[in-house]
Structure prediction request, 428 residues.
Amino acid sequence: MTASSKPSGEIVVHVFGRTDVGRTREHNEDTFAVADLTTMNASLQPEVRTHRVGPRGSLFMVADGMGGAAAGEVASAMATEIILAEVDRRWRSSSDHDPEIFAHALRAATEVANTKIHHYASSNPENRGMGTTATIAGFLGDTLYVCQVGDSRAYLVRDGVATLITKDQSLMQKLVEAGELTEEEAEVSERRNIILQALGPEPVVRVDLTSQQVKRGDVLILCSDGLSGQVRAHEIVEVVTSEPDLVSVCKKLIDLANEAGGPDNITVVAARFDGPGLAETGAESVAHRVYRGSQEARATVPVDRDSIPVTTADFEDLSTAPTLETTPLKRKSGGAAKGGAGAAASAKPAQAAPAASAAGASAPAPAAAAPAARGGAKETAEIAPAGRAKIPPPAPPGGRMDRGSLRFVFGTIAVLVLGYYLVTWLRP
Prediction:
């Protein structure tokens, strides 16, 4: 949809959230957050439950904690508090309203939460190994930006279909992608609670950042696996389409999960998008769509490292020389994922995380090690049309002669030779 055809007018969000301990757990380790970022009101007060989306947007989040004793409660609560505070500091305090800054502020806030939770757990032995999933949806303009760590989920309900717009960071998801299991088999597997990432257990986390354009009438459902593990997508659609009141939507979805056994804490946040500022038709299709900002979208071309000539002979002023940004990558047969443009990448095994608890709570599992590079593959470098190459300085005095020096030397030799022949010829 072009900028000229984009509807004008206000956008309104109706939102509600609810959490339940379930039928088998003794305490609730889930947390959720709903916030109008323009006023920084994070609550379920009436002014937030129905609010006009301001220039700073809105935020919705679900976190599913894990760990011994009450560590899971601590981790999920820390995640929501830290992320809200970081978004406030990085986004609301900025004078810029650029959506790209908003998206990167969400990702940075998630990474900061991981660092602080990990540091807290390391400093408090009784809480070591604690962690939490996090699904954070930031809404700005007509677009959702979703940060995902773990296996809590985000569905977008449109035209009678609930589409998953996040991807579980779980063992089952990897097996489904590898063709080892079907989605139906994964849903009933005893290992479906094993996740590969969470905020807290490891010092570094990889945040999956996606984006989705919204149209008028779309409904966002964020939920912990206590809901998604018991309630199928078509059941979510039935509840959303039959209940205009989001309070009833949240209650009925939780009731369905409890009727299916309620083996885990259950949390759901439901948000309906309305208002003339949203298109009623023509929005992009619903899908898991990786967000690519201007930095990630720069075109790159892999080439052999040895084939890159670097010379300054034709440039009197080095500031006029072509610029290159080169970054060593993994060997072609290596298994590590390539980083963003300008970031170094190497093939190394992923760090292992604690295994799932006997109680079946969500817990990180060891990630598969990256396969080693196999014989003879050439090193490659990534070239992007930005940045500057490290161009070697001109040769110091005493190095290779320039053309003027060569002319002087050969001229002197020629004069001496000519003089010698003249003296010899004139001698009696």
Remarks:
- Residues 401-428 form one domain.
- Residues 99-123 form the longest helix (25 residues).
- The two ends are 99 Å apart (CA to CA).
